[in-house]
């Protein structure tokens, strides 16, 4: 590498040479030090892969809903994907559901508690009582 113009002047050569050769820090370390000095903790956290805590921490969703982050905010959503198995249950609301999963899905969507009154469709006589009502139609 040819000497810098300032290094050619014998009177300044010693000072410039020290500045250029001994105070240089490898580029990456220099940039990290400079950024840390200017931006402080934020840069260190970014360099270490810091992620802020999820907005869902501490959120309690009701009726089978789960917390999901949408647009940076916590939101309770229903995510039931029920298998196509017909195993009817009678809900405490008097509705026959195709399965216990469908009952739980309906409770989530409606935002209210629906319990399984008994296995089998509503309106059938059971030894322990009866459950009269309408039949829920499966979306598929």
Automatic annotation (TrEMBL):
UniProt signal peptide: none
Name the GO cellular-component terms: extracellular region
Gene Ontology biological process: cell differentiation
Record's keyword terms, sorted: Disulfide bond, Membrane, Protease inhibitor, Serine protease inhibitor, Transmembrane, Transmembrane helix
Among InterPro entries, the record links this protein to: Fol_N, Kazal_dom, Kazal_dom_sf, Prot_Inhib_GrowthFact_Antg
Q: Where is the Kazal-like domain?
A: 77-124
Listed transmembrane segments: 20-47
Q: What is this protein called?
A: Agrin
- Please report the organism this UniProt entry assigns to the protein: Myotis davidii (David's myotis)
* Species lineage: Eukaryota, Metazoa, Chordata, Craniata, Vertebrata
């Amino acid at each position: 590498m040819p000497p810098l113009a300032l290094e050619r002047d014998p009177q300044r050569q010693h000072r410039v040479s020290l500045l250029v050769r001994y105070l240089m820090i490898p580029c990456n370390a220099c940039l990290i030090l400079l950024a840390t000095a200017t931006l402080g903790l934020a840069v260190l956290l970014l360099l270490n892969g810091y992620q802020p805590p999820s907005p869902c921490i501490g959120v309690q969703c009701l009726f089978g809903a789960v917390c999901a982050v949408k647009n940076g905010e916590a939101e309770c959503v229903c995510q039931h994907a029920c298998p196509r198995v017909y195993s009817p249950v009678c809900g405490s609301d008097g509705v026959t559901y195709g399965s216990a999963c469908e009952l739980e899905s309906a409770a989530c969507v409606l935002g209210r508690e629906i319990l399984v009154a008994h296995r089998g469709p509503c309106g059938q006589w059971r030894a322990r009582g009866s459950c009269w009502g309408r039949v829920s139609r499966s979306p598929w």
